[in-house]
Design a protein that fits this description.
The complex is a heterodimer. Chain A is α+β, with helices and mostly antiparallel strands. Chain A has one domain (about 25-170, about 190-205). Chain A is built from four helices and ten strands; from the N terminus they run αβββαββββαββαβ. A seven-stranded mixed β-sheet of chain A has the order 1-10-9-4-5-6-7, covered by helices on one side. Chain A has a three-stranded antiparallel β-sheet with strand order 2-3-8. By secondary structure, chain B is mostly beta strands. Chain B folds into three domains: about 1-35, no CATH class; about 70-145, Ubiquitin-like (UB roll); about 150-510, membrane protein fhac: a member of the omp85/tpsb transporter family (Porin). Chain B has five helices and 25 strands. Chain B has helices at about 1-25, 85-90, 105-115, 465-470, 505-510; strands spanning about 40-45, 70-80, 100, 120-130, 135-145, 150-160, 170-185, 190-200, 200-210, 220-230, 240, 255-265, 270-285, 290-295, 295-300, 310-320, 335-345, 355-365, 370-385, 390, 425-430, 430-445, 450-465, 485-495, 500-505. A 15-stranded antiparallel β-sheet of chain B has the order 6-7-8-9-10-12-13-16-17-18-19-22-23-24-25. In chain B, strands 3-2-5-4 form a four-stranded mixed β-sheet. Chain B is elongated. The relative contact order of chain B is 0.08. Classes of the chains: A alpha+beta, B mainly beta. At the A-B interface, helix 1, strand 5, strand 6, strand 7 and helix 3 of A face helix 1, strand 1, helix 3, strand 4 and strand 6 of B. Strand 7 (about 110-115) of chain A pairs antiparallel with strand 1 of chain B, so a sheet runs across the interface.
Chain lengths: ~220, ~525
């Protein structure tokens, strides 16, 4: 009883905190070097994150099956919690077993670009070393304020549809179910291990330092 | 913290996409400029930026792009399966030797997750390696097995029961567990057992499940049932044949031994249908006669069991529809279970009845990751169903322990917050309940998967057919309707091995707040 009351009180206290915690916490994100340049009216950013990838994740590049990295870059004006703009890029690498080359395909808002790399590192650089990535038109970047770029990159992300289906496979009772409470005999508790599965093989998150990207 | 940031970012994506649309179209250069370092670029769209000579060269002489590779499967290799039979893994692969395979084939990813969905493996990775001739490959399935022994449930609780001579006792305990090996001897067959112990009561279950019998999409289950049980009957002034004075309760004992067979099949992504047959022998030690005061009248006690030996044979069919996002820390989705049962003489049953029921729960996410659960239940029994197939009031109120493996632990009636004839009811032919529960996530982690604070409120009714035919005496118009309110609040913890719920209702139920039966309102 005492424990229940204490836990309830804790819940009441934590509720508003959890709402506040939904804001991006830039301090918790590792900072990396991001270079901003202006290409006439377009703000461009260059950055790399190859070194942040886990070795086991990189090993999968040569599996012969598609290896995908989905990158999203958010530009925030300092002090604001909603991004000014978002750009995204999907990069896929498939190792051709018999030609022994890495076929890459980069998808952006402006189209697809296919390339071939001879080595795994070459292929990875295509996906993880972004140079002059178009970020935003100057109309969206207020030169009076400092801005930050936050980057989220997911390796082999699992589609929400697949996660949904996986949950069904795991959680469903085999051949019977009880109407009553308390009789969840041999129920669906195995579904808990779903929590051990990430939504991707690896997720990389980092940010730039805040600076004024003056044209 | 990292995951929180990711979630935040995803949420922002949609809001910002429209903002970003204009400059992206106007200046179509969120382009991957490092691509220009590759001699063999074959852009589908003209690159905007010129090549930058200072950038490191990645590949100086790339071969021309050719069509995506297509292979022929020469062999399927399973690696890492120390316990699980190779055939169990292959059962979930929609490929065979000699088949053409493209790396882009969606079935590859699907097969990986289908294998993960068995629960047998911690990780599953598919890869290709060169075969013995050009164009041929070996499909390699690398698995890391996981512990497949799962504690499905642990039951521990307190109840108020009665002694063998029918005298009310204030406090007793009960406990039990359900454990399953979901990959028995690596065959993919599930083996499970459950037990519950209480004072002079025991319930045992054993179950074998093949989720893909003979490699089909049918699931097959066999279950063995044994219960040595007792129950508590009578509102007040209970008289039992052979006893010299009135007692608090009549407490008959009975045994059940039998088994069931069930078949289940998926219907689409979110639904499953099942049919089954259960056969059991029942041996009941009932007094020759017993009466109690029901309302204001002395009436015989109906034990809902046939004296001495009887047989029950019941057919059951059901449908489950489940779109919940999580089985235990649910925040959205719907779970519906509809069930119909029939027992009849031609099936060899001494009990002839039909039972129908629908339970539906809908989860609605609200602000701050909180969620709301709306739940409803309605059910009816027609005929002389045994007591364990009837609707027990303790299954609907939070202030009494639920039945576990068909055992009842508590002699008490519903708390009767609304001063109705619910206080006279124990088993009903009809039952309905509506409830709402509000959940506040307190914690999410890896060992303790989650902790949620919750508060719930519900209303329910349990009604006997005889009260429809002849109104219960001693109650005025509105109070004749046997309904009650229930509520609870507490914290629910979800661990890797099970769920622990701490709620206030179980503690409050031992406070003297219950209404007395048989009092005219």
């Amino acid at each position: 009883m005492r424990f229940s009351t204490a836990a309830l009180a804790l819940g009441v206290l934590l509720a508003p905190l959890s709402a506040a915690a939904a804001l991006p916490d830039f301090d918790a994100m590792g900072a990396r070097k991001v270079t901003f340049t202006w290409d006439r009216a377009l703000l461009r950013a260059s950055f790399a994150f190859r070194d942040m990838l886990d070795g086991k994740v990189v090993d999968k590049v040569s599996s012969g099956l598609p290896w995908t990295i989905v990158m999203r870059a958010f530009l925030f004006r300092e002090g604001q919690t909603s991004p000014v703009v978002l750009v995204g890029q999907t990069c896929r690498i498939t190792f051709d077993l018999w030609d022994e080359v890495y076929r890459t395909e980069v998808l952006t808002a402006s189209g697809a670009k296919k390339q071939v790399a001879q080595t795994v590192e070459s292929a990875l650089s295509i996906c993880t070393e972004l140079r002059g990535l178009g970020i935003a038109h100057h109309r969206f970047v207020d030169g009076r304020f400092r801005h930050r770029l936050a980057v989220v990159a997911e390796v082999n992300p699992i589609s929400p549809e697949m996660i949904e289906q996986l949950k069904r496979w795991v959680s469903r009772p085999a051949a019977s179910a009880q109407l009553r409470p308390g009789d969840a005999l041999f129920g669906s508790f195995a579904g808990l291990f779903m929590r051990e599965l990430g939504k991707s093989d690896q997720t990389v998150v980092f940010r730039s330092e805040a600076r004024v990207p003056n044209p | 913290m990292r995951s929180r940031i990711i979630v935040t970012s995803v949420a922002i994506f949609w809001a910002s996409a429209a903002v970003a649309a204009e400059p992206t179209k106007a200046q179509p250069t969120p382009e991957h400029d490092s691509a220009n370092t590759h001699v063999a670029d074959v852009p589908e769209k003209q690159a905007i930026d010129p090549p930058r000579p200072t950038e490191p060269s990645v590949a100086k002489s790339e071969p021309p792009i050719i069509a995506a590779p297509s292979y022929v499967i020469e062999r399927i290799v399973v690696v890492g399966n120390r316990k699980t039979n190779r055939r169990v893994v292959e059962r979930y692969l929609p490929f065979s030797r000699g088949e053409n395979l493209s790396p882009d084939d969606a079935r590859i990813e699907r097969a990986r997750f289908r294998l993960l969905g068995t629960g047998y493996f911690r990780t599953v990775n598919l890869s290709l390696r060169k075969g013995s001739r050009r164009g041929a490959v070996e499909l390699v399935v690398t698995v890391e097995e996981r512990n497949t022994i799962v504690v499905n449930d642990i039951w521990l609780g307190f109840a108020a029961d009665a002694s063998s001579d029918g005298k009310a006792r204030p406090f007793t305990g009960y406990g039990g567990a359900s454990v399953a090996e979901n990959n028995f001897l690596g065959t993919g067959v599930g083996l499970a057992g459950a037990f519950v112990l209480a004072d002079r009561q025991v319930a045992l279950r054993a179950r074998i499940t093949d989720p893909n019998v003979f490699g089909s999409r049918w699931a097959l289950e066999f279950e063995l049932i044994h219960n040595r049980a007792r129950d508590f009957f009578g509102s007040r002034d209970v008289l039992v044949e052979g006893a010299t004075s009135a007692r608090d309760y009549a407490s008959p004992e009975y045994k059940r031994t039998g088994g069931s067979i069930s078949l289940g099949h998926d219907i689409g992504l979110n639904a499953q249908a099942f049919v089954g047959l259960r056969v059991e022998g029942i041996s009941a030690d009932l007094p020759k006669a017993a009466s109690h005061v029901y309302g204001l009248e002395v009436q015989p006690i109906e034990f809902h069991l046939l004296r001495d030996n009887s047989y029950l044979s019941v057919l059951r069919a059901g449908l489950v529809h489940d779109t919940r996002d999580d089985v235990s820390l649910t925040s959205r989705g719907t779970h519906v279970l509809a069930s119909a049962e029939a027992a009849a003489g031609p099936l060899g049953s001494d009990y002839v009845y039909a039972k129908f029921g629908v339970r539906a729960a809908h989860y609605i996410p609200v602000k701050w990751n909180h969620s709301l659960k709306l739940e409803g239940f309605i059910g009816s029994v027609f005929g002389n169903a045994p007591l364990f197939e009837r609707f027990y009031v303790g299954d609907f109120t939070d202030f009494l322990p639920d039945r576990v493996l068909d055992l009842t632990f508590d002699r008490r009636s519903s708390p009767n917050f609304l001063n109705t004839s619910i206080v006279e009811q124990r088993y009903g032919d009809y039952a309905a309940k509506v409830s709402v529960e509000y959940r506040v996530p307190l914690y999410r982690g890896r060992v303790l998967y989650g902790a949620d604070a919750f508060a719930s409120l519900g209303f329910f009714g349990v009604l006997q057919q005889r009260d429809l035919e002849r109104s219960i005496t001693g109650y005025n118009s509105g109070s004749r309707i046997p309904i009650d309110m229930t509520f609870n609040a507490g914290v629910r913890f979800v661990f890797a091995i099970g769920t622990l719920q701490l709620g206030v209702s179980n503690f409050l139920s031992f406070l003297p707040v219950q209404g007395a039966p048989g009092v005219s309102q």
